[in-house]
Amino acid sequence: MAPEQSGSPAASQSKASSELPAPEDADSGGGWPLIDGWARATLSPTGLRLWQTLNHKSACLSCAWGTGGQSGGFRDELGERLQRCLKSVEAIGAELQSAVPAEVFAGRSLAELQQLSSAECDQLGRLDRPLIQRAGSDHYQPISWEEVQDISAAAFARPSPERVASYSSGRSSNEAAYLLQLLLRALGSNNLADCSDLCHAPSSIGLSRVFGSGTSMVSLESLQQADGVVLVGSNAPANHPRLMNELIRLRERGGTVIVINPVLEAGLLKFGSPAFPIRSMLGGGSEIASLFLQPIPGSDTAVFLGLQKALLDSGAIDWEFVKAHADGWQALIEQIETTSWEAITGCCGLSREELEHTAARLAACKAVVFAWAMGITHHANGTANVQAIANTAVLTGNVARPGAGTMPIRGHSNVQGFGSMGVTVNLREPMRLALEQLLGRPLSPTRGYDTRALIEAAAAGAVDSLLCLGGNLYGANPDSRQAQAALGRIDTIIYLATKPNTGHFHGLAARQTLLLPVFNRFETPHRTTVESGNNWVRLNEPGSTHLGSGQLISEVEFLAELAHRLHGTEPIDWRRLQDPVYVRELIARTVPGYAAIAEIDSSKKEFEVAGRVFQEPCFATATGRAQLAVTPLPELGLPNANHFGGLAAGEQGLVLNLITARSYGQHNTVVYKQGDSYRGMPHRQTILVNPEDLAACGLRANQRVTVQGEAGQLDGIELIPGSVRPGAALMFYPEANVLMRAVSDPESGTPAFKRVPVLVRA
Fold first, then answer.
1. Partners of 516 in the beta sheet?
2. What is the dihedral of CA 105, 110, 116, 120, to 10 degrees?
């Protein structure tokens, strides 16, 4: 393994950072493109219905920072206006498409459908009738709902419950999520894989170890009292645009925003928000980063250990808080003292001066929120990264008080709600006991499959039936060939979805694949709830669909009918669960912190989940104290070209650490726009590389190259020079998944999407 470049990639000041090479047409994020996007959407044929939907009392379909619910379409949980973003417009616009023409499935073979990109799949339209693909057929064909239910019940009525499983995304409601886990656990299966296994599982596990709760401890109101934010491994301008409004306001009140990211994202330097239209149009946007650090990808534990060492050296540790409210600090302090600056800076690629300057700015803040996204969790040591951040928050006394705390930035709109409802292989003890009382018998002691374990089990022939509640299990996994082959060994797969995606054409079962159309959130004919990333439970009012002749079903209705066919009326009336009010009664009885949901239909009062936003330093651990722990430095390095078979004599090439990421016009695996003007990447067959790396190996901008990974390769990829740290590169997910082996964090099972060794060859 060769060491990575460790020279300082950027100065600590945002002014110096902004002098790094950046695309000429994107010196800030947001701005006119967002306003233009709103205008185009408004003037489109679906513009009127789009605005009606935006004002519907239902939560945003996009990220877990979305708005809506009882506060109204454009309001957040504090009642503030103008809190919708272009991501929300794109997501709603896609749901307002017409039905997929019948001739698409009748006339196009599966081989033809498999040639479609993610964007092309999404643009086929809405699913409006149930379909089946049987072994030996190269088409999806219509099927009746009665036959669907018969096939589904037969598939899950297995004598070996460990051979049935589910996978889910955060697109659905709390009620559907609760029914899904109750259905499987009553069968005796804990195989409840979820999209969170591929994103924030390290956050849930790491924070639970430190604080006893795996979610954000910061409410929106608390965030607005902060004078400092440390934002790590997040491209919030693209993935969580509404958060940018809070960062803009923090800077306006004199606060500090410290950004840590190997890629110098334009929107993290300056962002033009539609909530501030005059400034966006005339002023080029608002300043975001006060400091910008570009460490080596995967070295975040070293970065935070360096900050801790600088804080210790300067006397900035809050000893009174630490000794009163934390355990394990002695071993952590010993690690800080005995780890040399050379080891820290050599690991992260930042200088001691940069880390000391950042620590000083951090110490000068009165109340700091530590926020992060998948740039922290998508590593082989993702859980340790999260614990290193939590350690830093405790050592500085920035937890459990107004304006301070830890805040993982969740992705899909209800991904956190699924975890709360028990769709997890890490079921908490209080909920386990409550479910056992409800069902009248012990739950299976077998842990169950998380998402990566599910793929491995399927590949080994250990899974017979799989129910997918939304999501794209094929597209979201690393090593696309392995994922396709594994799904192909499952006897029956049931997909509940609103639109086609690549997984429906590549993730086909061995015998039968069902593709079933369901209502989306603003169409569902009954009330549902979702949970935001800041623990706020929103109530969605009933709606209607524009697909008048469609044969859609609500997820709650489908799951309750399946449960009835499998379980009858014991120990609960399963068919009665078609009434979401009854489901919410059961949620109130069995889900910790959710007692208020029992009254939400009559009161219409949305609420904060109890026991998560710590107002004082009494944590949900066994001792009531934060549990600090040593976080070892990762062993980072890149293989040489011989690892990939070597370069021919005279052949140009270089080995890089590849970061896979979403583009600005993308939501999870769904692509809305092919290009990414903010990064200067005109299409999805591109790789962003530091200009110094290109010059060093004799490659040139816009040259077409082969990118070879450990699991596969991509040809005809265009080289784009950009502001990524030397030694690193960036490509788009999920297309780049084919390159990577499924290397995962052993603590959480989350794949290392942000650190993929590749050989770029001419």
1. 496
2. 20
